[in-house]
Amino acid sequence: MQEFELINRYFKGRGISRRDVNLGIGDDCALVTVPQNSQLAVTTDTMVCGVHFFEDMSPRALGHRAIAVNLSDLAAMGAEPAWVSVALTLPHADVQWLEEFTAGMHEIAEYFNVQIIGGDTTQGPLTVTVCAKGTVPEGKAITRSGAKTGDWIYVTGPLGDAGLAVEARKQHLDIDPEWLKKLTHKLEYPTPRVAAGQVLRGYASAAIDISDGLLADLEHILEMSQVGATIQADKIPTTEAFRQSIEGEAKWPYILAYGDDYELLYTVPENHKAMLDNKLNQYGIDAVCIGQIRGGEGKIDVFDGEHKLDISAMGFEHFAEDEAC
Predict the structure, then answer these.
(1) What does this protein do (predicted)?
(2) Which of 50, 188, 262, 267 is least buried, going by the fewest C-beta atoms within 10 A?
């Protein structure tokens, strides 16, 4: 299958058509109209087979995940997603694989009212790069640099499932198949917190999506905001599948350090706390307070009840060399 045949068959004319797209797939560039008094938010993420996903991951899940992780970045800034470009590198053009992969992409794109407006295809090791664009009211974007001493620290949902799913496969952990299925679904089909991100605008002082792990991503906020934090690890929400699959001290690295959960981590001042909780609840988002910002640039103290955890021993590495393609 030639490049333009592939584009015409799997991308052009498929998915939603937004009114703000003046020219989509088929020309040298796409043309879009950005709303007045808005800023353009742009993020790019590359996923390489054997580095960011297992070789036998279903193509439908891969298509979903490739879009989702980018929409999660937009959500962390409080942006409304609008358009994505996709660069796809394939070892060969497998028709069945492409059908499933593009179905996964179009499903999540349509759900969030996002149009695929262009990209590129080439031959080589399996790699997916997505550039997502969205809009945010001028001056309203949530950054990593606004956290202040006394602000409360929240997460929008449970952590640990994705990391446990990866390690269950790598280490052949003995986990009940039904629980493992639920854990794996969280890894392969993450849900970007787009609605939550837009609700946070005007209330949250800082935000980031949890892709590299709670502690690593919190550290980004602390460094940019020049503050420290205390985390109450026993308050961090987890799913039943996670709790049934691992317990004791072994659970902490997955909750605190692994990542790939794509929940939002945000800080909120005391005077906005109740109002934001109420607004998020209206969207069915039960965000949980897990700590507080304090002085001490970049320093994080983590407690399980009154017991202080040794977080220096919790470094976790993503699979970077396993499952190479």
Answers:
(1) Catalyzes the ATP-dependent phosphorylation of thiamine-monophosphate (TMP) to form thiamine-pyrophosphate (TPP), the active form of vitamin B1.
(2) 50
